[in-house]
Specification:
By secondary structure, this protein is α/β, with parallel strands linked by helices. It contains 19 helices and 15 strands.
Length: 474
């Protein structure tokens, strides 16, 4: 019996859901072509339904968002941008991209919006390149008395190229919660520019703006980068702009983790202060996996189209852009604002529950959707904790704490996030329970009694998951 037949047999006609029918029909169709892939998708659904997902960078997109990704738009080449394409026959995808941009501008109140980046990492690379073209390449070409790159001799081109690669970016270190693309030595961001990294204060775990300003004066970066992957506090964007202005730097903000909180009005927006803002479209924004770039600086913003194509990418993923448009429309609803507020409440509740059980939370709390648990006093590694929690049905990720003495594959901490379970409808009471479950399990791991405790926690997890079903319409 197919999934769709099983659904019809169990679900009265009056309760049938069009999205569920479309989703199950798609899985049945995939199964006819490649059963192994269909089975993996179904198993992933079962796994996510039966686990408490506390991975801060993950969420659950709506069925409408997911279905928008699976259609013939994936076959469409649309290099360029709306009404300025390399290929003909792009009228419909022009409308789709314009809709996504329109919704995005309405969410964040910005002048320029670009929805083509395939990921947050791509968005960062494109933004870097756009800044370098505006601030370095074009002035260098003008100084040579030429109009564009094509007029340069080979020697002139090499001079400009070397100049582009000799600029400096100053971002938060991976050690303090920054992202790989913020200048990490093994990432391309530190190859295309010279990279200097700032850290949080060793005692408080917080950003020290005075120390940051002093470092900026010493290093004179061309780009000052704000944003994080594992820093649980708000950033003073006005202060960051003041520091950037003091050294003539461009302020770029990567808000990939907290974009949904900005959209929901519970986190400060970087747009009034930053020259360029990048973000992913999943995480707290609850869209498909992808990236985007926003700007109120027209001089830099106007360079972004060419920085995307032919600068860094080929054809945009129009099926993903369609899904982005759907997600952006959802983010404009009053319900999304309520969701964003609940995300923060739930994260704060989780902090309190773990604190009450004797666990140390870096920076003593959180302002957003994530928190870092320092396990040094429990003498546990992040890897050990992550594995134990997963076997009990709770998924999170091991994560380095500031100035972590352990290597990245072990770590001294775990990162927990509230977005996904908030999407499932859980509130403070449930997050308090989850905090106590995590504490109980990790204490038993510390005491060597994990085999006794793990099954008990697994039963509690199962009960909680059943009370808050994922995609409950099928």
């Amino acid at each position: 019996m197919s999934l769709l037949e099983r659904y019809f047999s169990k679900t009265p006609e009056t309760k049938q859901n069009k999205a569920a029918i479309a989703y199950l029909a798609a899985l049945d169709y995939i199964a006819a072509s490649h059963p192994e892939i269909s089975n993996c998708i179904i198993q992933e659904l079962k796994d996510q339904r039966s686990h408490l997902k506390l991975i801060a960078s993950e969420n659950y997109s709506s069925l409408a968002v997911q279905l928008a990704m699976g259609n013939l738009l994936t076959d469409k080449y649309a290099e360029g941008y709306a009404h300025h394409r390399f290929y003909a026959g792009c009228e419909n995808v022009d409308t789709i991209e314009e809709a996504a941009i329109r919704e995005l501008k309405a969410i964040f109140g910005c002048e320029e919006a670009y929805v083509q980046p395939h990921s947050g990492a791509d968005a960062n690379m494109v933004a870097f390149w756009s800044i370098l073209v505006h601030r370095v390449q074009n002035p260098a070409i003008e100084k040579l008395g030429k109009k564009n790159l094509d007029e340069l001799t080979a020697d002139e081109y090499e001079t400009v190229r070397q100049l582009m690669l000799n600029q400096k970016v100053m971002g938060m270190s991976l050690n303090s919660g920054g992202h790989l693309t913020h200048g990490y030595r093994h990432n391309i961001s530190s190859k295309m520019m010279r990279s200097v990294l700032y850290d949080v204060d060793r005692e408080t775990g917080l950003l020290d703006y005075k120390a940051l300003a002093e470092m900026a004066q010493k290093e004179q970066p061309d780009i000052l980068l704000a944003g994080y992957s594992a820093y649980p506090r708000k950033i003073n964007f006005a202060k960051m702009r003041e520091i950037a202005d003091s050294v003539g730097a461009v302020l770029m903000v990567d808000m990939a983790h907290f974009a949904g909180l900005v959209a929901g009005g519970v986190f400060p927006s970087p747009l009034p202060h930053a020259h360029v803002v990048t973000t992913t479209t999943h995480k707290t924004l609850r869209g498909p996996r992808g990236g985007m770039i926003l700007s109120n600086d027209l001089a830099i913003g106007k360079k972004l189209n060419s920085a995307i194509f032919p600068g860094a990418q080929g054809g945009p993923l129009m099926h993903i852009i369609a899904a982005k448009a759907v997600a952006f429309k959802e983010a404009l609803s009053p319900a999304f604002k309520q969701y964003a507020e609940q995300v923060v409440k739930n994260a704060k509740t989780l902090v309190k529950a773990l604190n009450d059980q004797g666990f140390n939370i870096t920076t003593q709390g959180t302002d957003c959707h994530l928190l870092l648990v320092d396990l040094q006093q429990q003498k546990l590694t992040g890897q050990e904790a992550c594995d134990a929690l997963e076997h009990a049905g709770i998924t999170c990720n091991k994560n380095g704490i500031p100035f972590d003495p352990l290597p990245p594959l072990k770590t001294s901490g775990i990162r927990l996030g509230s977005p996904a379970l908030t999407t499932r409808g859980m509130k403070e009471a449930e997050f308090e329970t989850i905090g106590f479950m995590i504490a109980e399990l990790l204490k038993s791991l510390q005491q060597g009694d994990i085999e006794t405790t793990q099954p008990k926690i697994r039963q509690k997890v199962a009960k909680l998951c059943q009370s808050f079903p994922l995609y409950k319409d099928f």
